[in-house]
Design a protein that fits this description.
four-stranded mixed beta sheet; 6 helices; 4 strands; 44% helix
Length: 150
Amino acid sequence: MSDHDLPISAIGRRRHRRAVAQLVDEERRRRGLKGLRHSRRLRLSARAWARALARRSRFTHGNFARRVLRFPFVLAARGRGWRVAENLATANGPESAPRRIVANWMDSGRHRENLLGSWQYMAVWSVRDGPEPGRQRDSVIVVLHLGSRR
């Protein structure tokens, strides 16, 4: 069984993130789109939001329009053209497997639109937690940040 099909408890956070990113790229390539490059700056914002969601036991995009203005990816653009998007997922048990996370995004119109958009960069962050900390087996929160610059 590959990392794509295992719950987060069986593979750990780093392998979980890598598997989600690989599956996102597979979905894009299957449709003739380019794969995405990893962005350290997007990783910082994805990690910060995933940790905030886990710490607060909440699952929300919050005020994304306001929050995005503090993304290191956006700040580094210094006013030049940039675009960002965010996909979130929470799951537990077998649904925490990377393949299920990406499949659920692909089954949702808005999330699919984000995954297949004209992006250049991405970052994924996974935390073993959920809206009810410690009460769900293999619970995970996943934050995917996508970005592009002109």
